[in-house]
């Protein structure tokens, strides 16, 4: 199965991996800025999000990304990953370190992380709402928890649309025997310069993850933003665009 995707611009490739609250449309504010600065911007939807259906059987998301990049002739790529997209970026960079020139991880998740009481409480509330058939309530919960105070109302509505679509696609595929194949990443294998971004208005898990990774990645820098929630690229897109453009040219060869 080929991941739904789009490509904009020309030059060194930059892959954008979305949060599991969103789909590839979350990067709408970043695509013009990155393409305008001379990058070939690739963004894709992971299974069950946006335009990519839930696959039947075993499916290796990281390998699917590798296959997509092969099809596009992108041997090496910088990766920008948000939350769950950051978790996938870490796995990809650990499995194929020679293919990754730079990593920008925005409030990244990490496989194997032990969730805090706050994150466990969120998961339980979301599950209860979905089991009760209250998709609207589950969507509103996600917007409340994951979108920071700097976001405009139109941004909240944008996240609401993406999250609702993901729930609808995934609920419709509840009987599909999807078995994600995942590999435990080894951060020590990652050779790319890495920027770790976290926010003061996010759950504490994601700052803890960044601090943990900053101590294990060979070339990393942790930037904590006092204004940011969990989705800074949507909350203050111009500021994050400037941050990415400053980071990528210095790291992307």
From TrEMBL:
Residues 12-125 form the AB hydrolase-1 domain. The keyword Zinc does not apply. It comes from the Bacteria. One of its GO terms (cellular component) is membrane. Keywords: Hydrolase. The keyword Hydrolase applies. Pfam families: Abhydrolase_1. GO terms for molecular function: hydrolase activity. InterPro entries: AB_hydrolase_1 (IPR000073), AB_hydrolase_fold (IPR029058), AB_hydrolase_sf (IPR050266), Epox_hydrolase-like (IPR000639). This is Pimeloyl-ACP methyl ester carboxylesterase. It comes from Actinoplanes italicus.
């Amino acid at each position: 199965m080929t991941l739904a995707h789009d490509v904009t611009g020309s030059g060194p490739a930059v892959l954008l991996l979305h949060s599991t609250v969103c789909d590839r449309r979350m990067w709408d504010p970043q695509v013009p800025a990155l393409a305008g600065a001379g990058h070939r911007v690739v963004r894709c939807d992971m299974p069950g999000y946006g335009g990519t259906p839930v696959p039947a059987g075993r499916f290796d998301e990281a390998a699917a990304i590798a296959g997509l990049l092969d099809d596009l002739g992108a041997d090496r790529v910088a990766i920008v990953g948000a939350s769950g997209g950051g978790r996938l970026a870490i796995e990809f960079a650990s499995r194929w370190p020679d293919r990754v020139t730079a990593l920008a991880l925005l409030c990244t998740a990490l496989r194997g992380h032990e969730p805090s009481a706050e994150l466990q409480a969120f998961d339980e509330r979301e599950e209860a709402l979905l089991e009760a058939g209250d998709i609207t309530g589950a969507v509103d919960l996600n917007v409340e928890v994951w979108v920071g105070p700097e976001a405009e109302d139109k941004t909240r509505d944008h996240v609401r649309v993406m999250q609702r679509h993901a729930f609808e696609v995934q609920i419709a595929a509840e009987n599909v025997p999807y078995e994600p194949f995942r590999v435990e990443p080894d951060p020590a294998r990652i050779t790319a310069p890495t920027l770790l971004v976290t926010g003061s208005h996010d759950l504490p898990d994601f700052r803890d993850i960044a601090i943990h990774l900053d101590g294990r990645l060979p070339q990393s820098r942790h930037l904590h933003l006092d204004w940011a929630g969990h989705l800074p690229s949507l909350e203050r897109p111009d500021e994050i665009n400037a941050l990415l453009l400053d980071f990528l040219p210095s790291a992307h060869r």
